[in-house]
Amino acid sequence: MAELLRYRDDETVDHPAVTVDAFLDQSNASAVRIEPGDDARDLLPHLERVALVEVNFPAFGDGRGYSSARILREAGYDGELRAVGDVLVDQLAYMRRCGFDAFEPDQQLDKGDVQAAFDRWPEVYQPAADDRTPIWTKRHS
Fold it and tell me: Does domain 5-139 have CATH number 1.20.120?
């Protein structure tokens, strides 16, 4: 694994994440890992006890994790949401818009490339899970 990229001010959750099924079967876990095919909505009744959700991207072309992130953020989850696996630098800005605030890619990413990816589009056109203001609201306010 490469270096963890984290964009939060709270303490890093350092205990291992369990599968969604294992999480639902116990009451002491606070970190869960969503695999492709898992339904993030299964976690919604338990969000108050979740400190970390890892969303696995086994292949860069598998976009189901984006939906999981959006579902959790729209439901009010405010804990750490970490993309893990085959996370590429050109996906980071889109992942942030969906609500990811930490990344643990399989391969080390160049820090300059990471910053360039986040800086590439200074304005956005639609609201999303991040806190960026769409440009049309700036224009009409």
Answer: no
